[in-house]
Amino acid sequence: MNCCCSHSQSAGRFFSFFARRYRKRFEKNGFEPSQRQLLAGLEQAGYRGAAVLEIGSGVGHLHQTLLEQGASSAVGIDLSTKMNDEARQWAEERRLSDRTRYFDEDFMVLANELEIADLTILDKVVCCYPDAEGLVKQSLKKTRRVYALTYPRNRWYVRFAMGTMALLMLLVRSDFRPYVHDPILIEQWIVNNGYIKQYEATTFIWLTQVYVKLPNVTQEQS
Question: Which pTM was predicted?
């Protein structure tokens, strides 16, 4: 088993433990501040009528809300089967089952089978993946127009918190690790694929960015 496969399986088990709790938190409190920022950025970029791809889709609250507000369809991909179980149930309750599809898989394994979406979302996903460059570039290839993501700020206190969490994962013998990837590199990868940053906002921990693809620009193939 390679390290990425082992990491993905461990991440799926880790987040499955919190699936029911995540849904209850959303039902009680709604979106957290960084997600409200993400929605504000998507509102500026425009998502009405869009086919949405959400990588690391969790219990589905984000893309299902976009569907209720005018997006056309959504594909959710998550490593956690239990997260997807909650998302499917919630979609049924919200009468969105006919416009949603869910995959219990690593996006990097599944990517070649997916259709291109108008809008791609990675909400707190880049920090859960060791190969940030591969994840960003591959997900850009599956994006037609809008690319939105939230990931950790590169600050000492964030790196300390992530390092502490990584140590705890090591102590419990989990292969899952959180990461603080360089925002400068992430922005470079996206811009080099023909996108312009339209929106940016921060919380104490999170950096949210929304990019829109420039017209008549071909993405990198590397």
Answer: 0.87
Has residue 218 been placed in a domain?
Answer: no
| DSSP secondary structure letters along the chain | --HHHHHHHHHHHHHHTTHHHHHHHHHHH---HHHHHHHHHHHHH--TT-EEEEET-TTSHHHHHHHHTT--EEEEEES-HHHHHHHHHHHHHTT-GGGEEEEES-HHHHGGGSPPEEEEEEES-GGG-S-HHHHHHHHHHTEEEEEEEEEE---HHHHHHHHHHHHHHHHTT---------HHHHHHHHHTTTEEEEEEEE-SSEEEEEEEEPTT-PPP--
Q: Which domain holds residue 184?
A: 3-213
How many domains, the chain?
1
The CATH number that applies at residue 152 is 3.40.50.150
Per-residue pLDDT of the chain (222 residues; tens, 9 = 90+): 344 555 555 544 555 555 567 778 888 888 999 999 999 999 999 999 999 999 999 899 999 999 999 999 999 999 888 889 999 999 999 999 999 999 998 999 999 999 999 999 999 999 988 899 999 999 999 999 999 999 999 999 999 988 888 788 777 776 777 889 999 999 999 999 999 999 999 999 999 999 999 987 665 544
Does residue 219 form part of some domain? no
Residue 222 lies in a domain: no
